[in-house]
Design a protein that fits this description.
Order of helices and strands: HHHHHHHHHHH
Radius of gyration: 16 Å
Number of strands: 0
CATH topology: AhpD-like
CATH class: Mainly Alpha
Number of helices: 11
Structural class: mainly alpha
Helix content: 55-70%
Largest sheet: none
């Protein structure tokens, strides 16, 4: 880690401990931004996961790359007191491992719907080339053909939360000490 985080005795509470030790209002707001995306997005779970996982790859966040919706959402929602039953978790089937394995190959893998492919493209554009994606009229014509304005705003702010929080976790070296990493190890 790049910073000293007081020991809480529970590695799964690293972010809670961080928010109690340093910049509590800012860290808690960042956490709320992230959890709100999962609690209130109206997009399909596979669309959310496509964009989230591509963002995780770009950010380099190990926690985010290890997260699997089908396995980890219940524990995550329990951790922040969210309502799993009314969350994005219930918006369609959870992706399988092949889905995650192919995210970097989104141009060619036939297993993605047009909406999932566009969600990945958008996450990649926001994460790597925001000026270019903002000006890409062909991309926006495709987006507007399959996503409503409300869904575009939903997806945009979800991606924004993952960019911000994933990059912060990665650069501070916190991306190996979270409940998601522990649950991934337990599943192996």
């Amino acid at each position: 880690m790049r910073i000293d985080v007081p020991q809480s005795g529970d590695p799964g509470r690293t972010f809670e401990t961080l928010s109690n030790a340093y910049a509590p209002e800012i860290v808690r707001a960042a956490g709320a931004f992230s959890t709100t995306a999962y609690q209130h997005s109206n997009l399909a779970l596979r669309e959310i996961e496509a964009a989230r996982y591509r963002t995780a790859q770009i950010n380099g966040c190990m926690v985010c790359q290890g997260f699997r919706a089908g396995r980890d959402f219940p524990q995550m929602f329990e951790g922040f007191g969210g309502d799993l039953e009314s969350s994005v978790y219930r918006n369609g089937p959870a992706p399988d491992e092949e889905f995650y394995a192919q995210v970097g190959n989104w141009h060619d893998w036939p297993g993605y719907s047009e909406r999932e492919r566009l969600a990945i493209h958008y996450a990649e554009g926001m994460g790597e080339a925001p000026k270019q994606i903002a000006a890409d009229e062909a991309f926006w014509a495709r987006m507007k053909a399959v996503y409503s304005d409300e869904e575009i705003v939903d997806l945009t702010y979800c991606i924004g939360s993952w960019i911000a929080n994933g990059r912060a976790a990665h650069v501070l070296g916190l991306d190996n000490v979270c409940f998601v990493a522990e649950s991934a190890e337990a599943a192996e």
